[in-house]
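Dear colleague,

Thank you for sharing your sequence with our group. We've completed the structure prediction you requested, and as agreed, I am returning the results in plain text so they can be pasted directly into your records. Please verify that the sequence below matches your submission; if there's any discrepancy, let me know and we will rerun it promptly.
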Amino acid sequence: MKLLPGIVCVAALALPVFSVMAADEKPAARTERGGPCMEDVKRLCPEAKTKEEVQACMKQHKDELSDACKEVGKKGADFLKACKDDIKKLCSNVERGGGRILRCLKENESSLSESCRSAIQNAQ
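Please find the predicted structure tokens below.
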């Protein structure tokens, strides 16, 4: 998934995405990897060390985010909206982080709602 690390990076725009999205790893790993929000995190939240600190900082600075980062946040919110019920139904026992939720959704592709299946395809 090329888009998901960036989606999670801007989760403060859609706070639930941060805790539910599949590519949820430590903030440092996400920002080192890149993505549209990397520079925003570095510029706006250089002192943030934890997931919670990044969330709070990005939410505080949401009006200062780059357009690319804002777009990723919108896509993340759209993904969550499309897949929230599927995640609850099919992956509620899956630990968050490391792409496990996305793997779970893909493993249960035949049971996914059409909106979630489409959201996953659009995120690739």
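Summary note from our side: The mean pLDDT is 76.

Kind regards,
the structure core
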